[in-house]
Amino acid sequence: MKQIEIKHSEIFEEFKDGRTVCPKCSSEYIIKKGYYLSEKYLHKMQRLKCLDCGNVFHGIPKIMEIEEDFKYKSKDEYPTQQWDKYTEGQLNERRLLPDVLDELFQNIQLKYDETKKGRNFSNIKDIVYCLILKTYTKLSSRRLNSDLESIQKEGYIEKVPNFTTLMKYLNKEELTYLLDALVTMSSKPIPNIVDVAIDSSGFSTSQFARWFDFKYDKDKTIRTWVKAHIVCDTQTNIITSVTVTPANFADSPQLKPLLEKNPHKVKEVSADRAYSSRNNLEIITNMGAVPYIPFKSNVTGLHSKVHIWKKSYRYFKEHPQDFFEHYHKRSNVETCFHMIKQKFGKDLATKSFESQKNEILLKVLCHNICCLIQEYYLMNIESYYSTEVQKIPILVK
Description:
The protein has a 5-stranded mixed beta sheet, sandwiched between helices. The chain has a 3-stranded antiparallel beta sheet with strand order 3-4-5, with no helix packed on it. It has 397 residues and is α/β, with parallel strands linked by helices. The longest helix is centred in the last third of the chain and has 26 residues, at 353-378. Helices cover 36% and strands 22% of the residues. The chain starts with 12 loop residues before the first strand and ends with a strand. The chain contains 12 helices and 12 strands. 27% of the residues are buried. The chain folds into 3 domains: 8-63, no CATH class; 89-188 and 361-396, no CATH class; 195-334, Nucleotidyltransferase, domain 5, CATH 3.30.420. The chain has helices at residues 83-91, 93-105, 124-137, 145-153, 163-169, 173-186, 255-261, 278-286, 307-318, 320-327, 331-344, 353-378; strands at 13-14, 20-21, 30-38, 43-50, 56-61, 108-112, 195-213, 218-233, 239-246, 268-270, 290-292, 392-396. α3 (124-137) packs across α12 (353-378).
């Protein structure tokens, strides 16, 4: 077959730098609409469509398209770990754990309900100290007693509570508010948290769900789990806000409450396709940040009245390498979940949802304290919480 010389002017108009434009309205907002066989040029031709005026026109022949499907090129160089300072932080982690927690509690204003009758309140500060140590050491509440006696002698707690008291307090709602406030408070000493990532992960429980499958005519069993949604700093892996929901809760609606609880002024937000929605992009831009959320395969950017949706889609298609360099900071949130589950366990021992929520919050708080200790050696953080933030009131009932 004789090859015919094809002139670009017969097919479509171009800018001088090679970008395709619509021959009717000169718009650059062009999408591909598939190939068709041209009898004139004896080649497969690319059909293009202008999203501004709706004009359909021809593109370049397929044999002239040398660009392949986009493949992200990861960075060859990564920052090296300061192993001497990392080792020093690991060696002193257990010793500094109660000191950091004590500094955090200076910003919590505990108020006890004076109208309540009955037994005296247990010191909830002592309860949190004991539960943090229990989570850190992964010991049972009975075998933890000797460790609690040692921190009592050091003056961190007033009294060693009974092991049954610790388990009862895991079911209290005020403990949830206190732990959530401590998690948010523990991220404030880290300076310049501007790039964050959002994701969720499941923690398995000791309970099982059973149902009868009519298709296979037999009973089926599955272990139930609870989902933790977090916002983490992509540099230090410290968690700035957390929400715990049942397993059947979707990820996308959790983005707004997570970012509202985040105490830092962020510039970039990275998340996977589960958070891809027009509403979420507007929420992020209204907070003054740039969203880096990839679009699903069935998205075309058509008929959208949301400006940021069109703008992000265009940037996603025209500059994929630059987009994914920002997006892949989200990999740090996977590292964050791995750190928590590897160090403090991926399973939950409690049965009620309230206690499971508190158990996850304890794991997250332990993770944040460990990150603070590590950054104390890596970044020379020497700030006092009590002089930088306002005290948070917590009512104990």
